[in-house]
């Protein structure tokens, strides 16, 4: 009887480039590609390329390496997803930023017509959505059902995404191919906070509440049909008041407001109902944990930590929740977040050109879930050091390339700018010199005219003086006056006055 030999288990489970990327092992990935593995190899099960898996797992180092090696950024899965779509679904901010820098098309649509903005709004990643919109993505692009990103955010109750979209110019009154506005969808699903926000941002109260879809239904009709009690009560209250008060409209980031007030019940309700995600970020990049840490609310802070909130997220100012607690001198909050005191771990060390500082600083402005890639602290440290060394190496190569380019007669952009500035400075100097020469000639002409005027003044003064002398008469005696009188009498001639009468 022939003996049947089974293939060894190692050959059956031979690691692939996809496994290396999922594990965040950039060294193994580089070795595999060097040994002939395809950098754009497609996973048969998910039709993912290594770039897709890097975006999915948040393996930023592998993602950068793949982009440096020329991985195709336009490859799509069966669903039509690019790597940017995957990063939007997973909320990988840093990966999305890297893809954008390398020319990812943010308006690319999948098989359903969804862009990265649609998918980020669907999954509630407001900061990733803001990254996409900041890079000139269309916030009003419609999918195959004429759903805009605001429709997805309203349908899934993503209040933070809804606010971000409105801030970047999204129209909340757009309708889908069934005539539904975002308010219709929020009322259908019973998302009260989203519905309040849409009412406050609509064209008018009457327009938002009175809008009818293709079936002739208003948001109130849909709330009644699907038994959405709280939305229905809100609509009835607003209809009685005929206006929306400031308190009702002030629904911006309710979880942040609850954490700021130490309102744990409201915060727990918002998170458990899915209105916001645990790491939801406001327009300044702060999470609820930042707000609780800044005010020293330990109850909310401990609950957020128990729920798995990420305390390594940095806001727009580059501060983690622990940094915020230090700034407001909340010593107890610093200890809860793993600090020792107000003086430990100064962020000033981040400015030092030392790769060791990466031990204490993650990716700034990222909400990536660092647990997606199962790396130890040592492996992450080594990865950051490799990235720093790669950056220094690229700087040296860039300087070397610039030097070679100049020696071959090339002209760099900075050299062109310097020449342009030198020409502009020379032209300005010439214009100033010409102006100076003109002023000098003009001054000489004025001085010549001044001399002529002075000479004319002197001549006229002399004429006046001579005239004054000539007009002065010498003193006359009595004898001279008598002679003049006698002369005048002799010159007088006598005569007869005759009156002429006209003849009739």
From TrEMBL:
Annotated Acidic residues bias: 342-352
One Pfam family per UniProt: Ank_2
Keywords annotated in UniProt: ANK repeat, Coiled coil, Repeat
Transmembrane segment boundaries: none
Keyword Ubl conjugation: no
ANK repeat ranges per the UniProt record: 12-44, 46-78, 79-111, 112-144, 145-177, 178-205, 284-316
Chain residue ranges for the region called Disordered: 342-369, 470-494
Coiled-coil region list: 405-463
Biased composition (Basic and acidic residues): 353-363
Name the record gives this protein: Ankyrin repeat domain-containing protein 42
Organism this protein belongs to: Aldrovandia affinis
């Amino acid at each position: 009887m022939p003996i049947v030999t089974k293939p060894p288990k190692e050959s059956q489970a031979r690691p692939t480039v996809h496994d290396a990327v999922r594990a965040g092992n950039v060294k193994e990935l580089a070795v595999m590609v060097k040994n002939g593995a395809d950098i754009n190899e497609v996973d048969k099960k998910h039709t993912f390329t290594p770039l897709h898996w890097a975006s999915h797992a948040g393996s930023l180092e592998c993602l950068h390496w793949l982009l440096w090696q020329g991985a195709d950024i336009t490859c799509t899965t069966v669903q039509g997803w690019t790597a940017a779509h995957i990063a939007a679904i997973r909320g990988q901010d840093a990966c999305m930023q890297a893809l954008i820098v390398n020319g990812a098309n943010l308006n690319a649509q999948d098989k359903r017509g969804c862009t990265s903005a649609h998918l980020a709004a669907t999954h509630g990643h407001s900061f990733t959505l803001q990254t996409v919109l900041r890079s000139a993505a269309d916030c009003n692009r419609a999918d195959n059902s004429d759903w805009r990103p605001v429709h997805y955010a309203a349908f899934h109750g993503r209040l933070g995404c809804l606010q971000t979209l409105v801030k970047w110019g999204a129209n909340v009154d757009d309708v889908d191919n069934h005539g539904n506005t975002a308010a219709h969808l929020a009322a259908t699903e019973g998302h009260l906070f989203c519905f309040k926000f849409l009412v406050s941002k609509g064209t008018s109260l009457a327009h938002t509440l009175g809008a009818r879809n293709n079936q002739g239904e208003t948001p109130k009709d849909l709330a009644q049909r699907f038994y959405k009690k709280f939305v229905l009560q809100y609509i009835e209250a607003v209809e009685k008041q005929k206006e929306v008060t400031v308190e009702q409209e002030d629904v911006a980031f309710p979880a942040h407001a609850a954490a700021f007030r130490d309102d744990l019940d409201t915060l727990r309700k918002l998170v458990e109902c899915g209105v916001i995600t645990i790491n939801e970020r406001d327009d300044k990049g702060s999470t609820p944990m930042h707000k609780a840490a800044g005010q020293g609310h330990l109850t909310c802070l401990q609950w957020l930590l128990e729920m798995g909130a990420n305390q390594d997220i940095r806001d727009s100012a580059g501060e983690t929740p622990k940094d915020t607690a230090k700034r407001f001198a909340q010593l107890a909050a610093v200890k809860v977040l793993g600090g020792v005191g107000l003086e430990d771990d100064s962020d000033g060390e981040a400015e030092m050109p030392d790769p060791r500082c990466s031990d204490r600083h993650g990716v700034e402005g990222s909400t990536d879930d660092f647990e997606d890639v199962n790396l130890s602290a040592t492996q992450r440290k080594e990865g950051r050091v490799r990235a720093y060394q790669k950056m220094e190496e690229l700087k040296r190569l860039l300087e070397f390339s610039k030097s070679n380019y100049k020696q071959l007669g090339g002209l760099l952009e900075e050299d062109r700018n310097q020449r342009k500035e030198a020409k502009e400075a020379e032209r300005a100097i010439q214009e100033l010199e010409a102006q100076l020469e003109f002023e000098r000639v003009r001054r000489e002409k004025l001085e010549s005219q001044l001399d002529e005027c002075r000479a004319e003044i002197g001549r006229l003064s002399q004429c006046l003086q001579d005239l004054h002398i000539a007009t002065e008469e010498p003193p006359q005696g009595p004898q001279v006056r008598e002679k003049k009188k006698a002369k005048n009498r002799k010159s007088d001639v006598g005569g007869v006055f005759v009156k002429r009468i006209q003849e009739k």
